[in-house]
């Protein structure tokens, strides 16, 4: 029997995730799989009135959820992690079907969800405040953390499930209900996660109020309903810079809180002392993984002139051997772009790079005749004479621009001289160079790595970056604080009423 006969069909993948025919043919939002460009579902969408009803339900849920002890809230997230472990293969395959990343990366994304659940469960017993020394006798000061309110989560197509979970797992243990507005390109994975959450809430019992975890399927106006409502305390948004600017603008009119994780234009500096074998592997994974559609994708390679000729021809050769193809099939390393528009944007960027003096290796359509409606491309390496205009721009496609440098200060200046500030890295075995790169005068990004690529961050660290990347931090470290409100308490247990700063005010 040919291997393909053993592969689950598209509808098998949907039904394994609890998405029945009735759900997937209920409406007018067409969902196409980038795997072959075919229609896989037509979903019913929510209206703005539905969004308002969800916001009202979340407001009600908040009243009781904030009073559930945090470790008990952690139990809900523990159950979610357990269920995700059980569903890892099914959901990972659906991630692949819906957004086109290879199955290994689909599994990796679900693993990121599981990891952040584990992290949040531990955190649910560690939402620590402070005790602070008061300047007044018989007084105590402390800082406490309280639930914040409803958290709206807006996510992008390229990581359709993990960023929801970074936000939701933390928000839930912090006492906040969650409303999710996924990308209209990837609503099926969101619905599949919502199915899992419904099961988990039912298992958890009465402490989980209706309206605790909800999902809105549809277009932009649903996100706008979230940003418009004063009953949504916090919006965490992942996606493009224009989307983040719109969210920030709307939220600023009501001074609501935001966590923004927007574009990246991530670089690697390869220094003369670098281990080139390691660098080569890191470059290929971080530049072509997820077909160049991660916010952490390596987009700029800044190579010392002494090793340029030892590295770049090998890299070009490695690109030529990359297996491009169906992301559900074992062995493919490069799947399709999300849609043909993305392929057009890639072609346009390559044209501009050429007009700016670039030499293009690879690129253009791959497997075109097999799947006319899908967007398989050859990843590109573009040797650039200088870091010109196109290199300041994030094109969501596998294009790696390469420039030469002479000394480290110049390389760091190039690394920092773009509008975005998400992730960065250096390959070097010289501690003077690596520590300079990590110092205050080094990389200006939220993430700076040594001897690993810029993508594939673990959940334990805070994730996000500066400048046009938006400044937000999600996931590990103390990112949880953004989901809670801080309260400073001063308690007078004396029989006097001394004023701070020694002010006399006797009546
Ligand atoms: C994204 O592309 O929006 O560090 C997130 C990484 C992944 C997350 C990427 N852990 O590449």
TrEMBL record:
Family: Belongs to the aldehyde dehydrogenase family.
Protein's name in the database: aldehyde dehydrogenase (NAD(+))
Subunit record text: Homotetramer.
GO MF terms, alphabetically ordered: aldehyde dehydrogenase (NAD+) activity
Annotated organism of origin: Shimia gijangensis
Domain of life: Bacteria
Domain called Aldehyde dehydrogenase: residue spans: 27-488
Active site: 261
InterPro entries the record matches: Ald_DH/histidinol_DH, Ald_DH_C, Ald_DH_CS_GLU, Ald_DH_N, Aldehyde_DH_dom, ALDH7A1-like
Key words, A-Z: NAD, Oxidoreductase
One Pfam family named in its UniProt record: Aldedh
């Amino acid at each position: 029997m040919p291997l393909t006969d053993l592969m689950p069909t598209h509808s098998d993948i949907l039904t394994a995730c609890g998405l029945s025919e009735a759900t997937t043919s209920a409406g007018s939002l067409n969902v196409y799989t980038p795997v072959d460009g075919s229609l896989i579902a037509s979903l019913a969408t929510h209206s703005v009135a539905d969004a308002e009803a969800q916001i009202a339900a979340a407001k009600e849920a908040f009243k009781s959820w904030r009073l559930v002890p945090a470790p008990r809230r952690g139990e809900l997230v523990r159950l979610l992690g357990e269920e995700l472990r059980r569903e890892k293969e099914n959901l990972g395959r659906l991630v692949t079907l819906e957004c086109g990343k290879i199955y290994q990366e689909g599994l990796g994304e679900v693993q990121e969800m599981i990891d952040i659940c584990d992290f949040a469960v531990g955190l649910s017993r560690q939402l620590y405040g402070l005790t602070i020394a008061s300047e007044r006798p018989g007084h105590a000061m402390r800082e406490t953390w309280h639930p914040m309110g409803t958290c709206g989560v807006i996510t992008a197509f390229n990581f359709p499930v993990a960023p929801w979970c970074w936000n939701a797992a933390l928000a839930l243990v912090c006492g906040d209900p969650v409303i999710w507005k996924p990308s209209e390109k990837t609503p099926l994975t969101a619905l599949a996660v919502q199915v899992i959450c419904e099961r988990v809430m039912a298992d958890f019992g009465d402490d989980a109020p209706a309206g605790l975890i909800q999902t809105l399927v549809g277009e932009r106006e649903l996100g706008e309903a979230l940003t418009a409502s004063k009953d949504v305390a916090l919006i965490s948004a992942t996606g493009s810079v224009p989307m983040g600017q719109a969210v920030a603008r709307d939220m600023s009119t009501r001074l609501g809180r935001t966590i923004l994780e927007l574009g990246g234009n991530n670089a690697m500096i390869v220094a003369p002392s670098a281990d080139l074998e390691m660098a080569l592997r890191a470059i290929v994974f971080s530049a072509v993984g997820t077909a160049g559609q991660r916010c952490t994708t390596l987009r700029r390679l800044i190579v010392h002139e002494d090793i340029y000729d030892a590295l770049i021809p090998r890299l070009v050769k490695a690109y030529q051997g990359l297996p491009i193809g169906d992301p559900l099939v074992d062995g493919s390393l490069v799947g399709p772009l999300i849609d043909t528009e993305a392929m057009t944007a890639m072609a346009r960027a390559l044209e501009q790079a050429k007009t700016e003096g670039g030499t293009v290796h690879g690129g253009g359509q791959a497997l075109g005749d097999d799947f006319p409606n899908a967007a398989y491309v050859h990843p590109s390496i573009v040797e650039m004479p200088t870091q010109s205009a196109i290199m300041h721009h994030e094109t969501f496609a596998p294009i790696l621009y390469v420039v030469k440098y002479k000394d480290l200060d110049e390389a760091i200046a190039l690394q920092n001289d773009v509008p975005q500030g998400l992730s960065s890295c250096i390959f070097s075995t010289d501690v003077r160079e690596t520590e300079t790169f990590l110092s205050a005068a080094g990389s200006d990004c939220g993430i700076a790595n040594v001897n690993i690529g810029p993508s594939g961050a673990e959940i334990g660290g805070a994730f996000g970056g500066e400048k046009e990347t938006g400044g937000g931090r999600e996931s590990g470290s103390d990112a949880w604080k953004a989901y809670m409100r801080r309260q400073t308490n001063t308690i007078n247990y004396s029989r006097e009423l001394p004023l701070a700063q020694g002010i006399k005010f006797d009546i």
